[in-house]
Amino acid sequence: MDAKDRKKRLQLLLERQAIINKNAQINPCFEECIDALGENTIIYSQDKSQKIYKDFSSEYKITFYGRIQWSAYDYSEINAKDIKNNKVGIDSANEAYVLWSHGSDPVIRTTLKAAFNNFDLLSALSPDIWLYEPHKFVIEIFHDGIMRVLRKK
Q: How many percent of the chain have pLDDT more than 90?
């Protein structure tokens, strides 16, 4: 690891710790999830999280009950086995934001591989989650077991 990589890693760790310190009542399950996702997982501030949610809701039509309005898009249905076996049609090395439908946990950014490997921990934090990369893809995991993916061309 060269000096540039060490500096970047230190900055990520400092930002993560600052967010954790700022919100002393952070959900212990959230901390467990972050630890499991790995050291390159980024935790965003409240302001940045709000901007990401705003961008997400600007890019996709959202129903009044909190789902993407799938009738407006060409999507694929997937299942938990597809996620666990990384068969969603998107390279698992890609990174994505993780957005939560409930709770006050901040948006995080991680690789799809880390998210898929820790799917149970992610889904324990919120009944509905989205793995979102602006203008590229979204994966919606809804509490009723329906999972959908939309890949943009």
A: 42
